[in-house]
Each structure stands twice: as structure tokens, then as C-alpha cells.
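S2.1 Query sequence (Glucose-methanol-choline oxidoreductase C-terminal domain-containing protein)
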Amino acid sequence: DVQFHFAPSSVNSDGGEQIRKILNLRDRVYNTMYKPLVEAETWTILPLLLRPKSSGWVKLKSKNPLHYPVIEPNYFTHREDIDVLIEGIRIAFNVSNTKAFRKRGSRPLLTQMPGCRKYPFDTDEYWECAMRHFTFTIYHPTGTCKMGVDPDAVVDPRLRVYGVKGLRVIDASIMP
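Output C-alpha cells follow.
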């Protein structure tokens, strides 16, 4: 249910340009959570929810192909998604605290997320608050566009998107 994305850098190793843009981070949040890490030696472990119960939607804003679509991910509309991801966070902390990682000087970042300081750090309530402030879709999971001939399928066996003429999905998202 959870995949762990390990990276030999922080999410702002480029000076914060991409993470600020991707997450639309306010200066207060960026300066508290990420700016102190710009020159630091870091690594990142991100727990990813692979089988969310919550689902969102995408719709066209207009007929103009240059206009961005309207995307509503509906993160965490099912309580189980929150619980599974909190368990993933706890596993990530345990990994960071193993002898092998500690030997290399690994220690978790214990800075509290602005907006969640009313909750004691490392409680379920704190992590739920932090997740609701800092969650995004990532690009690694596969199997997000089911292939088949049943009503739940997104593409047919020739990778053509049902209901959209001239569009195919040709990446790993169609893999089971």
C-alpha cells in the first residue's frame, strides 16, 4: 500500500525553485522547512500512497488545448488513506533511525510544519495536519490507467483512451 521514494538529496536541492513552484509554497513555509537545508547534506524518504481510496477528477477548462485543465485530486477524502500514510511516515522514521543510517549521521528533520504547531510533534493529529498541508501527486506509480474491455478501464488493448478520439496512453501507467 506504501512505496518509499528514496533520494540522495533534499526536495529543494535546486535551491527550492521546483518545490516552491510544484507546491505553491508560501515564503513562511519554505523559509521554515526547506531554506535551512539548501546547503546541507541531506537525503529524503517520501512515503507514497499506492492504492488510495480517495479519488479526484480532471476536466477540461475550455476547448483551447493550451489552457491547463481543472484538477481536483480530493486527497484524503477517505480516512484509511490518512491512516496508511501515517503508518508509512512512522516506517520512514524507523528506517532513518536504523544503525546503518545513524552510522552515516542520519537524523530526521524535526522542524514542525507551520500551521500544525498546535499539535504535539509525531502524533497522529500532527501528521494528519502536515499531510493536508504538504501532499502532492508524484510520478512513479504505475497502473493508474487500467487497460481492458470492462467499464472501469481507461484504455483499450491498443492503448486508445475510451471516449477520446485520437488519444493514447503509452507509458507505464497502463501496466497492471
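Helices lie at 17-23, 27-33, 79-96, 99-103, 124-133. The longest helix spans residues 79-96.
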